[in-house]
Amino acid sequence: MKRSGTITIVIVGILLVALVAGYAFHLNRKARTSGEDNAEATAVQKVLMRDLEKNYPPTPKEVVKYFAEITECFYNEEYTQEELTQLAEKIQGIYDDELIANKSQEDYLNDLSSEIADMKDENYTISGYVLSASVDVEEFVENGYSCARLYCTFNVKQGAKGTVSSMEEFVLRKDEDGHWKIYGWKLADE
Predict the structure, then answer these.
(1) What pLDDT score was predicted for residue 115?
(2) Which residues, in sequence order, are bridge partners of residue 156?
(3) Strand, helix or coil at 40?
(4) What are the boundaries of each domain within the chain?
(5) Which CATH architecture has domain 44-187?
(6) H/E element holding 45?
(7) pTM for this model (two decimals)
(8) pLDDT tops 80 at residue 13
(9) Contact predicate 136/107, CB 8 Å
(10) Reduced DSSP (H G I as helix, E B as strand, rest coil) percent helix, strand, coil of the chain, to 5
(11) Which residue from 93, 120, 152, 176 has the least number of CB within 10 angstroms?
């Protein structure tokens, strides 16, 4: 009787060790798989994952950086029409309401699609960008609004022809929620 009780305890012990080891293996594999999924996210998916409600860029420089990331996606990446619409919505999420009001959503998407197609037809890509240093962000008040001015230089490459730089001047305005929004931009005076 004693011997069968010992055998039962050993078998139960082995089963418990096997269950614990199997569960640990499962958790380890699941963690590795989810890590691989994050590593495989495209640049477009990474931009689209940002929740502007919870994680809005805190400074004018960070807003323009997010603009540049989305712009790189527009011209450098492959995406579906649905993703293009989502990218357009993301970039409009950092635009000032007055800037958005200048065009209907349909006109904005048509113009954006046309501009992207033209750039891709000419084999243009954005090879990088450089933002103003934080100390070079000029803050000022205009018409009762807190505003900021800064520069971003885009390096634009056309196939094998080489790279040219395009410096853009951005003006941002704080909204009623305290978020910096892009009020407009233009080519900077050289």
Answers:
(1) 95
(2) 126, 164
(3) coil
(4) 44-187
(5) Roll (3.10)
(6) helix 43-49
(7) 0.77
(8) no
(9) no
(10) 50, 25, 25
(11) 176
